[in-house]
Amino acid sequence: xxxxxxxxxxxLALSGVAAADEQRENAFADRGFVGTRADPLIxxxxxxxxxxxxxxxxxxxxxxxxxxxxxxxxxxRLRKNGLFKVAxxxxxxxxxxxxxVTFIEGRTGYIVMDPLxxxxxxxxAYDLVKDKLGDKPVRAMIYTHSHVDHFGGSRGILPDGGxxxxxxxxxxxxxxxxxxxxxxxxxxMSRRSFFQFGSFLPRSPTGQISSGLGIGLSPGTQTLVPPxxxxxxxxxxxxxxxxxLEFQLTPGTEAPSEMNLFLPDKRALHLSENANASxxxxxxxxxxxxxxxxxxxDYLTEAEVRYGRxxxxxxxxxxxxxxxxxxxxxxxxxxxxxxxxxxxTVRLMNKGYTxxxxxxxxxxxxxxxxxxxxxxxYGDFSLNTKAVYxxxxxxxxxxxxxxRALPPEELATRYVRALGGPRAVLRMAQEAAxxxxxxxxxxxxxxxxxxxxxxxAKELLASVYQRMGFAAQSGIIRNVYLNGAQxxxxxxxKLPGGAATADIVQNTPxxxxxxxxxxxxxxxxxxxxxxxxxxxxxxxxxxxxxxLRNSVLLHGPLGxxxxxxxxxxxxxxxxxxxxxGQPLAEALAAGRLKLTGDRAAVERLLASLxxxxxxxxxxxx
Length: 621
Ligand SMILES: [Zn+2]
Hints:
621 residues, Metallo-beta-lactamase, Chain A, Serine Threonine Protein Phosphatase 5, Tetratricopeptide repeat, Nonspecific Lipid-transfer Protein, Chain A
């Protein structure tokens, strides 16, 4: 009987027919469909296409041999788009961007939650709601957490920002987290996010499909209407336009500032991005501060205890809802996956295993692993075990051999020499490729780092990466390998530095910009002579003193009578522009900034600041 079941399961898998768990997810992804927009294109004011609803039509039909079949079907669900009913008075627009935007009907208008990444896609979602449900005003906006795919479209919903009359509700610490998470390490993170999201890969069965969290990320206008009302404790309630809202704060989980929402009258629980249709990341490969798996699981338990018995539907910031008894099972089993991940990693850690070893040994129990929402479509279970290890123990595995290991190029040169030279290493790699790809990668990566001009080694490594990408279940891992292959063949993309949007700049404290200036200081260019420069904003009550001493840049308030070599004065935006690299001479000539004192001192400071661009080599030395 067991053999027969296995045979049927294998046949089902081969034919691409979904198993029962997947059929349930398929049904939930379809449930409540109201309609979608007629025009598949969402465009910016300049005519540029921001989103094409047909962009993933290639996913129709059985899985391509170059894509993990489970991941293929997961994306068939993710790409469904339009307006969906979640419960009476609760609707979501899905498939218009990376995330979902939720519309809650009040007595006279809508409460809008998580207004997508771009103003253009958010406006298109609101237009669809007006078309299908009625043209009513926005009565409040809610941001569940501090990631841009949940607030970037805010001005597509409230072009005038609500003018203080529309409450904009967010969890405590939202603005600081929203503007700060990617400032200091932003350039390195954007470089690596090209790998994570496959930003420069073609979208096709042999290229990028999705990250696995949402079907795509719209490249439109990112905005930020700042919150006017912060939620500071779990259990806090608000009634807006006749709708009762109860909040559960979940800081330090998927985002530094995050909260869940319970609608008691509608028996509906919104778990934000704390629950998803896939396992999430504890440490995204783009780089981030490592997240807390235990807090994540504990907050899901708190949600279960506080709201479980009063919940008929669970819906989220990404993907589709779960209804009825499967909803509570989803919450419990999704929580169990994170709890298992945390507890078992720590158990093995305490038995002496290192992160790399734990990642090889630990597997989710079958009862949890078979649920589509616990699969590694986005975050990867084995990478997550390494993140748990890192959170507690850091990068060092305790072995003195690894305390001061040689850097990659030096190590590679010695390895290749020790193994008999480049031809011998290439031959070993050719024998391993296709049979033992991880070993082939180890050999070829050393060879490329020792001999970056070895075209044969680079092409063979690219072909191995490609095969590993095609086999990956996680969209992120797929993208990383495929982007690695592409860069081995073509080199890194040539790109200017990232420019933050006006709303983000406006809401970022000046002191945070000065922190970024400090990490750009090149000590060799700065020289040893101390400097003191006043930086005075004329449009805000802000006076900063920037000092350079001992190869360190410090900043603080500019007190009356402080000794300075020079003072730069002007609107804050102009000061930031010049400190970010725009020419000082032009700003002074155009009268945008005023300089008093020693101009050479300011010029020396500006000339000692590094410029970052996200195009440094990664897969080659
Ligand atoms: Zn998100």
